[in-house]
Amino acid sequence: MLRGGRAIGWIEEALAPLSRTHPGLDIRALAVAIRSATGIESLIWLTDIAGLTRRQAVETMRWSARALLTAALNEHRATA
Description:
Blueprint: H1 7-15, H2 18-21, H3 27-38, H4 40-49, H5 54-79
Helix pairs in contact: 1-3, 3-5, 4-5
């Protein structure tokens, strides 16, 4: 059985202001994408498999989250 987890809700809350500035942006989908790139699973993979230091892994996850946000905003602008 999958755990519900709270991270997606926290990320959605952090992204909530975008609903005013970018109406129609799928905040939930963006939150899920960001969570997939920033969860503990990603941290473990980056350190244990990819061989990054913890600091490098965290920076990579931050970069990924920013890239996902930028891509979502650019895609939204293109379709708006």
